[in-house]
TrEMBL record:
It catalyses: L-lysyl-[protein] + 3 S-adenosyl-L-methionine = N(6),N(6),N(6)-trimethyl-L-lysyl-[protein] + 3 S-adenosyl-L-homocysteine + 3 H(+). InterPro entries: Ribosomal_L11_MeTrfase_PrmA (IPR050078), Ribosomal_PrmA_MeTrfase (IPR004498), SAM-dependent_MTases_sf (IPR029063). Signal peptide: none annotated. It comes from the Bacteria. S-adenosyl-L-methionine binds at residues 149, 170, 192, 232. This is Ribosomal protein L11 methyltransferase. NCBIfam families: prmA. One of its GO terms (cellular component) is ribosome. Keywords: Cytoplasm, Methyltransferase, Ribonucleoprotein, Ribosomal protein, S-adenosyl-L-methionine, Transferase. The lineage of its organism: Bacteria, Pseudomonadati, Pseudomonadota, Betaproteobacteria, Ferrovales.
Amino acid sequence: MSWTCLTLQTDRDHAELWSDALSAQGALAVTLSSQATGAEEVPVFGEPGCPEMPLWPHCQIEVLLPLDWDASSWLKQVSTSLDQPVPPHRSEIVADQDWVRLTQSQFDPIPAAPGLWIVPTWHEPPDPSALNLRLDPGQAFGTGSHPTTRLCLEWLTAHPPRMQRVLDYGCGSGILTIAAGLLGTTQPIGVDIDPVAVQTACDNATLNGVSASFYEPDSFPDFPPFDGVIANILTNPLVVLAPLLLNQLKAGGWLTLSGILSSQVERIQNAYAPDCFLSIAGEREGWVCLSGVKQVY
C-alpha cells in the first residue's frame, strides 16, 4: 500500500495552526519537526513541571494522505479555510516497504562503547563475543547513535553497576536501562513521560532477556532510594527535575546526567549542588556527560 506525503515549510507562528487544520481536514498523520539539522537544531521538549517551550523558528510539517486524494486541491482547501496562502511544499509517494527499508538502512549496528554493540533487530551482531544489546527503537528516542546516548553508555561500561539498583529517568527506547541490566544491575527501572516509549522499552527489555520495569511518572511506585540514577534528557528539564532525581538517589549513590551542551555545564552543576557535586565525565560533539556522588551528611 502507498500514500502521498506532503512536506510543508512554515514558521513557528503558523505551524500549530496548520497542523491542527490539516488534521481536522482528514490527514492520516501530521508530524511537526524542525527544518534545522545538526548544530543548528534546537530541541523542543515536554516534561512535567516545565513551562511550555516555543516551537522551532522554522518548522517542517509532514502530512500523510490517501494515494487517491488530489493532494494539491486538498491543500488549497485547507489554505482557504485558514485564509492563509499555501506554504512552500513538496509531494512524494511513500510505499510501505520503501519506508521500512529506508528507516532500517539508517540504523546499522553501532559500537556504542568498548565491548558493547547496539544491534537493531534486523541485523546480526558483528561481534558475537561482545555484549550485544538488541534494539528496535520504534517511535522512541534512543538508538545509541546520538552523542548523548553514547556518552551514557561509555560511562556505564566504564563503571558497571553490578548488583546495584539503578533508575533511568527519561528512558526512551530503554537503551540505558537495558544496558545497565546487561552490565549487572539488579532489576533496573526506567521512567518516561511517553507511553509509547514505555511500551517500546518493555518490548526491548524482553528482547534482551533483561528483567526491567518501566513506568510513566504518574504511575511510578514509591521505591526506596536507588544506588544510581542516570538521566539523558535536556538541560531545562534536568534543572527542574533536580529535587526529584536527588530524592530518588541514596546518600553515597552516583548520579550521571547527559543531554547537556558544553555551554550549559555550570547551570546543571549549580542546580544539583551542594547535594551532589558534578564533574565532566565525557564530551562528544559539543555534548557533555556529568557525573557525581550524592553527599553523605
